[in-house]
Amino acid sequence: MLPLNILAHSATTALGAGLDAQRQALAQGRSGLRRNDFGADPLDCWIGRVDGVEDVALPPALAGFACRNNALAWLALQQDGLLDALAGVVARHGAHRVAVVMGTSTSAIGATEEAYARLSTDAAGVAHFPPDLQRPRIHTPHALGDFVQAATGLRGPCVTVATACSSSAKVFAQAARLIHAGFADAALVGGVDTLCGSVLFGFHSLQLVASAPCQPFDARRSGLSLGEAGGYAVLERAGAGPQTALQLCGHGESSDAHHMSAPHPQGLGARLAMEQALRSAGLEPAQLGYLNLHGTSTPANDSIEAAAVAALFPPSLHASSTKGWTGHTLGAAGIVESVFALLALSDGLLPGTLNSEVPDPACGPQIRFENARADIGHAMNNSFGFGGNNCSLVFGKAE
């Protein structure tokens, strides 16, 4: 079933568009967080906003899909040779053999919010969306997958995964199953989520948003910083195309279903997902070189995840949260942080935990605040969503 070759990968975040922007900011310790300037009445917090999304113009043929989420999806798709890699797999297998598997948490709900805010009432007293937003295809949970398939011309299975913050990690596992089952030979996987009122004020209503930049695993942490991002990876059956330097080696998923928003107090689902991912990759815990943690900077999440990591991995593991750079990008967190794990493999830069300085005694020695450099063979990414939707992925260098 595994490994799968990774032909191209990219992320567009508050740090900028494409891999070079991500690697430079990670190396420099430069955060993309800014004081919230989103919306007419901004919440007092910090956000990871992507510059230039408002200036993106979709091609005329895709104008019916126009919204902030799809604009970011289009911007992210133009980076790092993704389209060239897709052209290659289409030439080898045909467009009908290339799947599209996208992850998102809120899809294009920002456009739906705007439509309701601008409702008009006709002579019969019936309320209607404004004419420019009477486009049903953007007001659905599947809007992202629908758009990406239309934008790329791929005709294989098309799936949108919406499991909160694990969405665009689970796309790798879903694509692996589609390829293994013979429904596809390759897949474009990814995720996009954009800032909107439902996200900002929804998380604020749960008392999870910090008024200052987030500090994952810091003893002083008080909540998360929300962000937006988009990213992709092109996967192909090993041996079906050119050799690649990086591969998807394993994945693990669990659903602990402990609570709608709180993690399992003993980190049961988190540990099951990590153990399954290691088993899938044929690795022992000591063979892992870097772990990108979910690390949202909320008091409960970080201590519980750290305890699960300490129970499974040796103290020598370098584990960190990169949300101090990008903010918590929700349904896009899985792809963004998988890209960071892939950069750790290709560049040898193991990110620390930005903004964090005071270690929490409840967190083990695996949690690192400073960047480090090391030549590693395997890296893991953790993405844990509301409702106990957990996913861990293992990436490695091709042998």
UniProtKB/TrEMBL annotation:
Residues 1-397 form the Ketosynthase family 3 (KS3) domain. It holds the Pfam family ketoacyl-synt. Coiled coil: none annotated. InterPro entries: Beta-ketoacyl_synthase (IPR000794), Ketoacyl_synth_AS (IPR018201), Ketoacyl_synth_C (IPR014031), Ketoacyl_synth_N (IPR014030), PKS_Beta-ketoAc_synthase_dom (IPR020841), Thiolase-like (IPR016039). Pathway: Lipid metabolism; fatty acid biosynthesis. SUPFAM superfamilies: Thiolase-like. It comes from the Bacteria. Keywords: Transferase. PANTHER family: BETA-KETOACYL SYNTHASE, POLYKETIDE SYNTHASE-RELATED. Belongs to the thiolase-like superfamily. Beta-ketoacyl-ACP synthases family. This is 3-oxoacyl-ACP synthase. The lineage of its organism: Bacteria, Pseudomonadati, Pseudomonadota, Gammaproteobacteria, Lysobacterales.
